[in-house]
Amino acid sequence: MSHQTxxxxxxxxxxxxxxxxLFPLYWMYITTIKSGSEMFATPPTFWPTDPQWQIFGxxxxxxxxxxxxxxxxxxxxxxVSVITVLGVGCAYVLARYRNIWVDIGLFLxxxxxxxPASLMVTPIFVGFSQIGLLNYPRLAVILxxxxxxxxxxxxxxxxxxxxxxxxxxxxxxxxxxxxxxxxFNIVLPLARNGILxxxxxxxxxxxxxxxxxxxxxxxVELQPASVxxxxxxxxxxxxxxxxxxxxxxxxxxxxxxxxxxxRRIVSGLTSGALK
Amino acid sequence: xxxxxxxxxxxxxFDIGLVGLPLAFLLTLSGLPLLYNIAMSLQEVDMFSLGSxxxxxxxxxxxxxxxxxxxxxxxxxxxxxxxxxxxxGQFLVGFGLALFFWxxxxxxxxxxxxxxxxxVMPGLVVGAIWNWILSGDFGVLNFIxxxxxxxxxxxxxxxxxxxxxxxxxxxxxxLGTSFNMILLSVGLSSIPRDLYEASELDGxxxxxxxxxxxxxxxxxxIGAIIALGLIFTLQQFDLFAAITSGGPNNASNVTQYxxxxxxxxxxxxxxxxxxxxxxxxxxxxxSVVYVRSxxxxxxx
Lengths: 275, 300
What we know:
The complex is a heterodimer. By secondary structure, chain A is mostly helical.
């Protein structure tokens, strides 16, 4: 078997595997544009005979999705801002030095990273309600998400800072920069891409966050899209095409960002999580 | 004051400020709740005492009550089943895929990265999609299983107590496989190629090479990935909320969902806190294993 045939064969198998793996996504999009009767046809159709494009507009308006997506955006942007402002400096210091205190700090951060949100939500909810923070439910959720996701961000960004050569910063200090100047003018621009990719990953997580929002936001007008999707899915629902349309509108922007930035996201993730 | 300011701009104070503020934030919003959780698990909490810090102290009564409840042990068994089956499935499928994509053909790394969409999607959306795929009468999975002759009648994945936990496990395996596969790929690509060339010259076949080179060289990656899998599986909440809500009759309930359910559906915050404390201890143990297995890399 020549080299080229082998490559083509492997590529074909890989595409088939990816197709099987991504079938649930395909099924979501296909169900969306099926009509009510086609959706429940036996055997199911794998290509819609009568695509219903107007469903996106109907679901967007009928479920008031603009408001839900806006709330998701507010929460995700808020959480990413808090995490970036606080996390970048932390990651920088943890990357720059190597001593026992840095080890302790890293250990603390890794331990805080693993606390499951659904277990932490009970004390956070009770504590927040006692200090009155639940009167600003979206802010409460932003703070809770920030505390949950910041350790992961710090671990990822720290890996980026490790790859910035320390000699550059030392040269800037010799040239008369202060530590603050060297940090903002030399180190930060060099680590910009890594920080951006990590922030995007955190944004995607916060955009889909569910537990905290579900528990702390009672007012429908302030709930994000994940809670909206949950209340759309009753126990005996049969509006699957509408639900899939909701899911498709919600998830498509995230998928688009991911496919565009795939290479960077994957390499950023792998450098931080394991190495 | 002036010395303090110059230290903030140009000395030790700069570093301490940069690391101190976030750590203070984290300790306030994660550390304090952690302690508060333990305190609440030792108190009697009801709707009226929710607003005050000084509630009646009851010692270990909540823990005793919890283990006296008939549903506790089945839910713990469910949690163990969920964790073991999810990790085994994610790891085996992920390792298989990672080995396949490791053969290195044009387009391999791009296609491999594409798998990760399952991991970046909101958990609720993944849950919604699987909820529809696993639906009893019109679900496409039942159709495929029927057509291939694996089953005769429809399986009611979400409402049959024998299958509802497995419905969530299937969805969770799908969700986590890609992450396992990407991390395993990183581990595989760090194995020096000349080891394989040498063993090939010595006449080792594919199978022998896998058992004597690949697996031993991957030992620390595999340890870290299993520990991470344990951590992620114990965090999985969205799929339960979207697919079964723990039902029917707790058949698919696991501790991380139960803790939330007790607090926010039954308003029994003390019980919710009690389960949380027990489970957080488990997660902490897993994370110590994870930190230990990546320690040399963490230190750079």
